[in-house]
Design brief:
8 helices; Rna Polymerase Sigma Factor, Chain: A; mainly alpha; two-stranded antiparallel sheet
Length: 207
């Protein structure tokens, strides 16, 4: 997992370019929207996969999210960064899908995490045994990682995906999830700790 805060999907150049393309699409440039979709489709699919655990469903939800973005393009505000706005749309589409199929349930994590932040609502996803993301790696190490990753709650999967797969900066994650940056740091800390604990439980995992 990369730690670079300003690289890839969430880096400043990509953030600026995505916002520029969205503003052009808002002003009627259909080609700009096509370029926006092409540049973000793969990353959006990965995030959706991390949330719903199914490649086919993730592909449909990614397409649904882009369609919603296009329909709502006139509501996109000048000066607003696009990526956090887009993630909220994608996230809501995924959670609505899971809720409609009975795969999403709220629970409290305050008893599980000492000193948990005020937003103690967590999300459990029922695992269907499908790897939530396509790993760039292959082999035993990747299999161990995904076994552990699938055991995490929906909130842990989401914030780890935003930080390490989409490489969003803390500020961008805070904007996407509508939480303070301090809460982002706290959630990441606990999510990483729980992932390490789960990795240690997997046979052949790190010790």
């Amino acid at each position: 997992m990369k730690e670079t805060p300003e690289a890839g999907y969430g880096g400043a150049p990509m953030q600026c370019e995505a916002t520029r393309l969205m503003l052009a699409a808002k002003n009627g440039d259909a080609r700009a929207f096509d370029r926006l979709v092409e540049s973000l489709r793969g990353r959006a699919f990965h995030v959706a996969c991390s949330l719903v655990g199914s490649r086919d469903d993730a592909m449909e939800l990614t397409q649904e999210a882009f369609l919603k973005v296009y329909k709502a393009r006139e509501t996109f505000r000048d000066g607003e960064p696009f990526l956090p706005w887009f993630h909220r749309i994608l996230r809501n589409a995924c959670y609505s899908f899971l809720r409609d199929r009975g795969k999403l349930r709220a629970r409290s994590i305050s008893a599980r995490i000492p000193g948990a932040d005020e937003d103690a609502a967590d999300l459990d996803l029922q695992d269907d045994g499908v790897s939530p993301l396509d790993s760039a790696e292959s082999g035993e190490r990747a299999e161990i990682f995904w076994k552990a990753f699938r055991t995490l709650s929906g909130r842990d999967r989401e914030i780890l995906s935003l930080r390490h797969f989409d490489e969003l900066a803390y500020k961008e994650i805070a904007e996407a999830l509508s939480i303070p940056e301090g809460t982002v740091m706290s959630r990441l800390f606990h999510a990483r700790r729980r992932l390490r604990e789960e990795l240690e439980k997997v046979p052949g995992g790190p010790r």
